[in-house]
C-alpha cells in the first residue's frame, strides 16, 4: 500500500508538484468526532420514519389497543437494520440533556479544530494527498460483528467530510499483498474543486502510461478471490 | 383515566394575602408572510386541508429547507420593537419530539441562540400605572400542523380512535416571545398579563408583520405561573397553561391558577409541574401532561440551514422602518383629539383608538367619533361578549356611517335624540344614516308656522309656568321646551324651541 502511495506522489513530483508535509494533530479525533455528529443527525433525520407518515406500519404483537408510541416503536424495530439502529441509539444518546456537552458539543468543537487545521494546511499546499483507506477492501460482511473496525476504515476520508471540503479518490495500482486496488485521495479547499480535477487528471495520465493499460486489465479474478481459492 | 374532578381553589384575596405570584408569558405570533418559513408554500388561512404543502414542509426524505428572508426581517422588527438586542450571529435548532402534527418529527426552532434577546415592553394598566415587562427572548420557529382527534369525547388525543392532520399550517413562520419571570405584580398579576398581551398585540399589529388574530390562532398565549409564600424569594413549582387564546381568558387563567396553586399549597400539598388545559367555558384549567420527568427535546443546531448573521447596517435599516410605538401614538392622538386622560384611557381600554382615528380622518369631530363608538354600539358589543371593532366589522358599520350621521346633525336635519334613533337603525342593519332617517321619517321640522303654533299652544296651556319665565326665572323654560318637543313628536330642534319661547316671553 505504502509503495503504491509513494509511487503516485513521485508521479506528481515528476509532473512538477512540490511536496511539503503538513501536520494536522486533531485528525486523530476525526473518527470519534464523526461518529458522534453523524449518528446525532441521523437519529433526528430518521425520526420521520415513525409509521405515521413514512416507513412501514407494524402493529406491536400482544397489545390489543396499542398507543401511537407503541406502534412507532414496533415499526421502527421492524423497519431499521442493526447498523441504523446502532446509529440512532448512539445519536439519541449523544444529544440527550446531560450528555450533549460532553458528546455532541465536544464533537462540534473538534470539528471546528479540524476545519481550522485544513485551512492552515491549505496555506502551505494547494491540495493535500493521502491514501484513501488504511487497508484495501475487506470482504463483504467481514466486519459486521466489529463495527469499530469497519468505522476505522474511513479514518482518512472523514476529516474532509467534517470540514466540508471536496475530495477525490482514484485507483493508484494494486497492493502487492492481496492484489486489490489501492485508493489515492486528493483534497482541496472549499469551492476549489477544480484543483482536484487538475491534479487527478495529471496523476491518472501518468499512471495509465506506466501501466500501459487501464488498471482493470491487471485486476485479479474476483470470483476466484471470493471462493478463497486464489489470492 | 377521565379528568372529571375540579380542583379546589382558595378565594383570590386569601391567596394574595399568603402568596406572591410569579408569572411568565409565552406568546406565539404567526407572521403574515406570503410563503412559509422554509419553503415556497402559501400561507392562506382556511384553505382546503393539505392543499398548501410541498416536499419540504411535509418533511419528504431528502427535501432541504431554505430560510424565508421576510420571516427573518419580521422577527428582527419584532425584536427591535421590543427593545431587544439583535444577535450578530445565530442559528436554527432542531427540537426533536415524536408527534403526528410534526411531519419531520422535529420542529425547526431556535434554542440557545435566539435572534432577539434582553428587551422590555412598557404596559399601561387601566388606571394609568405603567408596568415594565422584561423580555427574555423572541425567537424564530415554524408552526406545526393542526391535529383533529376524532372519536374521543374531549377532542383531545386521549380516547380518540383516529386523528386527522392538516399540514397547511406546518412551516408557517412563528415568533415565540418569552418574558422573564414577572415578580412583584401581586394582586394585579391577572390585569398585567392581560394588558401585556393586549399591548403586544397592538404593537405587532402596528408593525404590520402579523394580523395577530387570537380567535384565528395567529396569536396564542401560554401562561406560566407559580407562587411563593409572602416574604420568600424562592420560586415555587410552576404550571404551564396552554393555549389561552383571548385577552379575557389570559386574565381569568392567571387568576384561576393563583387560586388553585394557593389551595394546593395551603392544604400542605405540592404543586405538580405540568401543562394545564384552559377551559374557556368553565373558566378553569385541568391537568395535561406531567412535566416532572423533564421532556428531553435533544436540541441541536439545524445542520440543513446556514446561520443567520444580520449585518448591523441591515438591522439599522429595519429599525428605521419601525412605526411610531403605540404608546407614543396614543399620546399624540390624545393631544390632537383633545381628550382628557380618563376619556383617552376609556377609549384605549375599549380598543377604539383605530376606529376613532379612522373616523376622525374620514371627517368626523373627535368628540363625535368618541360619542358614537363608545355609546350604544359598545353596550351591544359587550352584550355579545365581543369588542366594538369586531362587532362593527360584523355589522358592517363603518367610520363613514359616523361621519354621515354627524353631518346630518350639523346640517340641522337631526337633533341629538333623532340622531340616536338613526344610529340604532344603522346598528340594526337598516342601512346608512341618511337612508335610515328617510325610512323612519326623521327630520327636524323646519316649518316655523307649525313650531310657532305649538309654542303658542304650550304657553297658553301652562300660563303659570310662562309667567315665571316672564318674571325672569329663565330655567323654568325647560318645562315648556319639553312640552313643545312632545307636541312636535320630537322632530324639532330643542335649541330653536328654547329661543322661540324666550323670544315670546322675555
Ligand atoms: Zn411547503
Protein architecture, described:
The complex is a heterodimer of chains A (231) and B (506). Helix content of chain A is 50%, strand content 8%. Chain A has 231 residues and is mostly helical. Chain A has one domain: Amidase signature (AS) enzymes (Alpha-Beta Complex), CATH 3.90.1300.10. In chain A, helix 2 packs across helix 4. Chain A is globular, with a radius of gyration of 22 Å. With 506 residues, chain B is an alpha+beta fold. Chain B has 3 domains: 12-317, no CATH class; 326-440, no CATH class; 448-505, Arc Repressor Mutant, subunit A. Chain B contains 18 helices and 15 strands. Chain B has helices at residues 12-18, 69-81, 189-207, 247-266, 312-319, 326-337, 341-349, 353-361, 366-373, 376-383, 388-395, 399-410, 416-427, 433-440, 448-461, 463-470, 477-487, 494-505, and strands at 19-30, 85-86, 93-96, 106-109, 116-124, 130-142, 146-150, 162-166, 173-179, 182-183, 219-229, 239-242, 274-279, 284-290, 300-301. In chain B, the strands form 3 sheets. In chain B, strands 1, 2, 5, 6, 9, 10, 11, 12, 13 and 14 form a 10-stranded mixed sheet that branches. The longest helix of chain B has 20 residues, at 247-266. The mean pLDDT of chain B is 91. Chain A binds chain B through residues 40-41, 43-44, 47-48, 50, 52-54, 68-69, 72, 92, 95-97, 100, 104, 108, and chain B through 58-59, 61, 94, 96, 98, 100, 103-106, 157, 294, 296, 298-301, 303.
Amino acid at each position: 500500500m505504502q509503495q503504491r502511495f509513494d509511487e503516485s506522489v513521485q508521479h506528481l513530483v515528476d509532473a512538477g508538484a512540490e511536496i511539503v508535509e503538513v501536520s494536522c494533530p486533531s485528525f486523530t479525533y476525526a473518527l470519534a468526532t464523526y461518529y458522534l455528529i453523524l449518528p446525532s443527525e441521523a437519529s433526528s433525520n430518521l425520526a420521520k420514519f415513525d409509521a405515521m407518515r413514512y416507513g412501514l406500519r407494524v402493529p406491536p404483537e400482544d397489545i390489543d389497543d396499542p398507543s401511537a408510541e407503541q406502534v412507532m416503536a414496533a415499526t421502527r424495530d421492524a423497519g431499521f437494520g442493526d447498523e441504523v439502529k446502532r446509529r440512532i441509539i448512539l445519536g439519541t444518546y449523544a444529544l440527550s440533556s446531560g450528555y450533549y456537552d460532553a458528546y455532541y458539543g465536544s464533537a462540534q468543537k473538534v470539528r471546528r479544530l479540524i476545519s481550522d487545521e485544513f485551512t492552515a494546511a491549505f496555506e502551505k499546499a494547494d491540495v493535500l494527498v493521502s491514501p484513501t483507506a488504511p487497508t484495501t477492501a475487506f470482504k463483504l460482511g467481514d466486519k459486521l460483528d466489529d463495527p469499530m473496525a469497519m468505522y476505522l476504515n474511513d479514518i482518512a476520508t472523514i476529516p474532509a467530510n467534517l470540514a466540508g471540503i471536496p475530495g477525490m479518490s482514484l485507483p493508484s495500482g494494486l497492493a502487492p499483498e492481496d492484489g486489490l486496488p489501492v485508493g489515492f485521495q486528493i483534497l482541496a479547499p472549499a469551492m476549489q474543486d477544480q484543483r482536484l480535477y487538475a491534479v487527478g487528471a495529471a496523476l491518472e495520465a501518468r499512471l495509465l502510461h506506466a501501466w500501459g493499460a487501464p488498471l482493470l486489465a491487471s485486476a485479479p479474478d474476483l470470483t476466484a478471490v471470493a471462493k478463497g481459492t486464489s489470492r | 383515566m377521565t379528568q372529571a374532578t375540579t380542583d379546589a381553589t382558595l378565594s383570590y384575596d386569601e391567596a394574595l394575602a399568603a402568596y406572591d405570584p410569579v408569572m411568565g408569558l409565552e406568546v406565539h405570533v404567526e407572521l403574515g408572510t406570503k410563503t412559509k418559513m422554509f419553503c415556497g408554500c402559501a400561507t392562506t388561512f382556511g384553505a382546503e386541508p393539505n392543499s398548501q404543502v410541498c416536499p419540504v414542509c411535509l418533511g419528504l426524505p431528502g427535501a432541504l429547507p431554505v430560510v424565508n428572508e421576510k420571516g427573518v426581517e419580521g422577527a428582527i422588527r419584532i425584536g427591535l420593537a421590543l427593545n431587544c438586542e439583535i444577535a450578530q450571529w445565530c442559528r436554527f435548532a432542531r427540537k426533536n419530539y415524536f408527534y403526528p402534527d410534526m411531519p419531520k418529527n422535529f420542529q425547526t426552532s431556535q434554542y440557545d441562540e435566539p435572534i432577539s434577546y434582553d428587551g422590555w415592553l412598557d404596559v399601561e394598566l387601566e388606571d394609568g400605572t405603567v408596568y415594565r415587562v422584561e423580555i427574555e427572548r423572541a425567537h424564530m420557529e415554524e408552526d406545526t400542523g393542526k391535529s383533529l382527534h376524532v372519536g374521543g369525547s374531549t377532542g383531545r388525543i386521549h380516547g380518540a380512535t383516529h386523528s386527522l392532520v392538516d399540514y397547511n399550517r406546518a412551516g408557517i413562520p412563528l415568533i415565540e416571545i418569552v418574558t422573564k419571570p414577572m415578580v412583584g405584580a401581586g394582586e394585579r398579576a391577572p390585569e398585567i398579563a392581560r394588558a401585556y398581551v393586549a399591548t403586544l398585540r397592538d404593537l405587532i399589529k402596528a408593525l404590520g408583520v402579523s394580523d395577530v388574530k387570537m380567535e384565528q390562532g395567529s396569536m396564542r398565549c401560554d401562561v406560566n405561573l407559580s407562587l411563593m409564600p409572602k416574604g420568600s424569594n424562592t420560586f415555587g413549582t410552576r404550571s404551564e397553561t396552554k393555549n389561552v387564546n383571548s385577552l379575557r381568558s389570559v386574565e381569568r387563567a392567571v387568576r384561576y391558577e393563583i387560586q388553585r396553586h394557593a389551595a394546593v399549597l395551603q392544604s400542605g400539598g405540592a404543586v405538580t409541574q405540568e401543562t394545564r388545559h384552559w377551559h374557556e367555558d368553565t373558566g378553569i384549567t385541568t391537568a395535561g401532561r406531567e412535566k416532572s420527568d423533564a421532556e428531553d427535546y435533544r436540541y441541536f443546531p439545524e445542520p440543513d440551514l446556514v446561520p443567520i448573521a444580520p449585518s448591523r447596517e441591515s438591522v439599522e435599516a429595519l429599525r428605521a422602518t419601525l412605526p411610531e410605538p403605540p404608546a407614543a401614538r396614543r399620546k399624540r392622538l390624545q393631544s390632537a383629539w383633545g381628550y382628557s386622560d380618563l376619556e383617552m384611557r376609556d377609549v384605549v381600554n375599549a380598543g377604539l383608538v383605530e376606529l376613532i382615528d379612522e373616523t376622525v380622518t374620514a371627517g368626523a369631530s373627535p368628540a363625535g367619533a368618541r360619542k358614537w363608538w363608545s355609546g350604544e354600539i359598545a353596550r351591544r358589543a359587550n352584550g355579545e361578549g365581543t369588542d366594538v371593532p369586531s362587532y362593527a366589522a360584523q355589522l358592517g358599520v363603518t367610520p363613514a356611517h359616523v361621519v354621515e350621521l354627524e353631518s346630518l346633525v350639523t346640517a340641522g336635519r337631526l337633533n341629538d335624540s333623532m340622531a340616536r334613533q338613526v344610529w340604532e337603525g344603522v346598528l340594526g342593519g337598516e342601512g346608512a344614516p341618511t337612508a335610515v332617517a328617510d325610512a323612519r321619517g326623521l327630520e327636524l321640522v323646519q316649518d316655523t308656522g307649525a313650531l310657532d303654533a305649538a309654542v303658542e299652544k304650550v304657553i297658553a296651556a301652562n300660563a303659570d309656568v310662562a309667567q315665571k319665565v316672564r318674571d325672569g326665572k329663565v330655567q323654568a323654560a325647560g318645562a315648556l321646551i319639553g312640552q313643545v318637543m312632545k307636541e312636535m313628536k320630537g322632530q324639532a330642534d330643542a335649541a330653536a324651541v328654547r329661543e322661540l319661547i324666550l323670544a315670546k316671553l322675555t
